[in-house]
Amino acid sequence: MKTFTPKQPASEQNQQRSQATQLSNSKPKSSKARRRLKFIEFAVVGFATWLNPNVGFLIFLLKLCFKLLGLLQEEREQ
To answer: Are 23 and 41 in contact, with CB atoms under 8 Å apart?
Structure first.
């Protein structure tokens, strides 16, 4: 993290502090969202497998959809 010098105007210092705070706050939010998505994936795929374990291809497509959701979520965060 950058150290603030007294030569910088207060508005620049506040802007740098808010950017640093936003960066530090975004990481826990993304890990929580990722864990939540993993849990939902586990529950939905587990329930679908329990309902009908003979449809392996559809279960594969369901898992693929969750992987795509995860990638889209990561892309949105960047």
So the answer is: no
